[in-house]
Design brief:
mainly alpha, 2 domains, 15 helices, Rhopdopsin 7-helix transmembrane proteins, Arc Repressor Mutant, subunit A
Length: 375
């Protein structure tokens, strides 16, 4: 029998290859056709991010198809078809994954056209390889694509750091908004994808890379659906006067605010944020707080900068202080409370986020502080 001549490794490979081909197709159909969010029903993901991720999943599926057809009908790595598939594979995968990763950063809309432009020399090397089959152009193209990937990785490190600062400056709650973990893992997996496309590997490594593919697909789909849309917050009137008596124009690029403006913001924060416990509201943003205190986002950001803090740190300080007040009151009245419940009552969605904020604020863990306070 013909099937008896096929080894178990080959059968297992084709099963795994089929799974890694079908999974991205299902993910692409889900992202394009399903309006609801199956992973986090209360989260509205970015439509731009969804589309880029769907494009990546679709390309991953098509890549499995054309590589399968190539190995079935040709398997000639010296042929024109091989060069075309390599160029097409690298071009489409890198551009779609770049678009997906950039769409995760919502501080500003980063263009993807530089990725297209950067791939032009790679395409040119492929054309030269077709015209001159004995030339070293594919080797040069391999070095170029790896160099390009390294440069993109370095760019992403700085872009993610910038995005993190933007989050701290504009959002009180950072749950599910940070992208460091998903970015780092995605970039590592992408690097393995490039090795798989460009390097002749043994059977064990091929199995490993296909498993990594499944991990990448699952991670990206989870991150796309759990990362909330952040640019849908109502815009603030940037020309809103800081106060009636100080409505004249100021240079908002200055490192320090005029004293009259700073005094007004400080007073308004006490009256409309601290005294009213506004800081306990979930997902309170800098823009929304600026509206409440009758100033604009630029002045409020400068105010926090002049105090060597960020908006996120300001809100977390208030929430941690509120937690400590509630706990002291519970001790005085001999009420039975838990740190988890008090954290929720202090404006936090999760205890882990509160625990980290508390340790940054107090320099010790929540349990250690509660033990000392109880004594």
């Amino acid at each position: 029998m013909f099937t008896e001549q096929i080894s178990a490794d080959i059968i297992l490979f084709f099963i795994l290859y089929g799974i890694t081909g079908v999974v991205p197709l299902i993910a692409a159909i889900y992202l394009l056709l399903r309006r609801g969010n199956a992973f986090a029903p209360d989260v509205t993901p970015s439509l731009r991010l969804r589309r880029w991720a769907a494009a990546f999943f679709l390309i991953a599926f098509l890549g499995h198809i054309w590589w399968f057809l190539f190995y079935i009908y040709s398997f000639d790595i010296q042929s024109v078809g091989y060069v075309v598939i390599v160029v097409l594979d690298c071009l489409t995968l890198l551009i779609t994954i770049a678009g997906t990763l950039l769409a995760m950063l919502q501080d500003r809309k980063r263009p993807v056209w530089p990725a297209f432009a950067a791939m032009i020399p790679f395409i040119a090397f492929g054309v030269l390889q077709i015209l001159y089959p004995n030339g070293p152009f594919m080797s040069i193209a391999s070095v170029y694509i790896l160099t390009l990937y390294i440069l993109f990785s370095v760019y992403m490190v700085f872009a993610v750091r910038q995005y993190g600062r933007w989050l701290n400056d504009n959002y009180a709650d950072l749950e599910n908004k940070k992208v460091w973990l998903s970015q780092a893992v995605s970039l590592v997996c992408l690097f393995l994808f490039i090795l798989y496309a460009l390097v002749d590997t043994d059977t064990n490594l091929i199995f490993f890379l296909h498993i990594v593919e499944l991990v990448l697909f699952g991670l990206l789909l989870w991150r796309v659906e759990t990362l909330p849309q952040l640019d849908s917050i109502p815009e603030v009137q940037e020309n809103c006067p800081p106060a009636p008596e100080t409505s004249q124009e100021y240079d908002t690029s200055a490192s320090a605010l005029p004293s009259a403006v700073a005094s007004h913001i400080e007073q308004q924060l006490v009256e409309h944020c601290e005294d009213t416990l506004l800081y306990l509201e979930h997902d309170l943003t800098l823009q929304q707080l600026a509206q409440v205190v009758r100033t604009n986002r630029t002045y409020l950001s400068l105010y926090f900068s002049s105090h060597n803090t960020t908006y996120n740190a300001y809100i977390n300080d208030l929430r941690v202080n509120h937690f400590m007040k509630l706990y002291r009151e519970a001790i005085t009245t001999q009420q039975s409370v838990t740190a988890q419940q008090l954290a929720i009552d202090s404006g936090y969605r999760s205890y882990s986020t509160f625990s980290l904020a508390f340790k940054q604020r107090m320099g010790q863990s929540v349990t250690s502080w509660m033990r000392e306070t109880t004594k």
